[in-house]
Amino acid sequence: MSSELVPLHDVLSYAALTDQSLRVRAVEAAANYDTESLVLITLAYMTTSSRKGARTSRKTLDAYSLAVRDFVPWARTNGMQLLRPGKRDGGRYLAHLQTRPTSGKGKRGLLSAATVAQYTAGVRALYRALRWAAATEVQPFDDVYVPADPTPGIVKNPPYMREIDAVLGHCEPRLAALILLCSHAGLRVSEALAVTMGDIQGHSLVVRGKGGKVRRVPLGGRVRQALGALSPVDSDRRYFDWDYGQATYRAGKAFRAAGCEWRGFHAARKHSGTRLYQATKDFTRVGLFLGHSSVDTTRRYVAVQDNDVSSEVEDW
């Protein structure tokens, strides 16, 4: 058994341990507030035993890792025993999050409701992982209610509309193609950065999205022209060799040069959803275009005018 307790750096190595060894590792990590080991245990659970398993997105894994790295030091500082928490400890941590100033660059105020919900979801995943490892049966966040943000996301971060054309004039061709893939083809930035020449089939693009889902997205003439002007950057015939941070830096710089506020790639994706809804008045078709599994999700991507039905009710 001692050889199995050597520090492990590969997430999947935890899943390969015997039940007893995994339990011992998890109990040790929790007793010692060993943050990095608890992160690895959480990720091992997420990638082998959660609902999505190995198809859990990298973004979710990164977000949950951040949550565990925030929670464990807080628990140690505030006298919370991870394996034997008090019945009010979950509420204490939630209150800490809700009253904590944001540390985002250029932002003021408290953590957003979305960030609080994300951190809480990450800690819930940690306790599911500890149960998976047979280290504890408790779940101190089962009765913790995270209030929803009363302000819709489409209001807090509305779609870029006129900004897109204004910004494209300040972009070099590769960056312009990336922004068009998000704003005109409706791709998530992670999907756009993964596009290869082989994904283009006529006037359509094969997109491999969240959870391994594959969809076929129609490409407008402007997007086809932008991609056609590019040469692949590697032997896999990818169009981009940027990571998310590098793409964000370039896009933010172009937006500032155009005198526009940079609000992330998500607002570009909302641009496509809003324009397509304006043309079709059909949330189902918009959802299929964006790769959503639920129309309720699609509604959060579409800016609908307050008087959208004024002409229909005029003669009632």
From TrEMBL:
Give the organism, scientific name.
Answer: Deinococcus antarcticus
The name this protein goes by in its record: Tyrosine-type recombinase/integrase
Whether DNA-binding counts among this entry's keywords is yes
The UniProt record lists the keyword DNA-binding: yes
Origin superkingdom: Bacteria
Q: What are the UniProt keywords, alphabetically?
A: DNA integration, DNA recombination, DNA-binding
Please give the Pfam families that the UniProt record associates with this protein.
Answer: Phage_int_SAM_1, Phage_integrase
> Which ranges carry the Tyr recombinase domain?
154-315
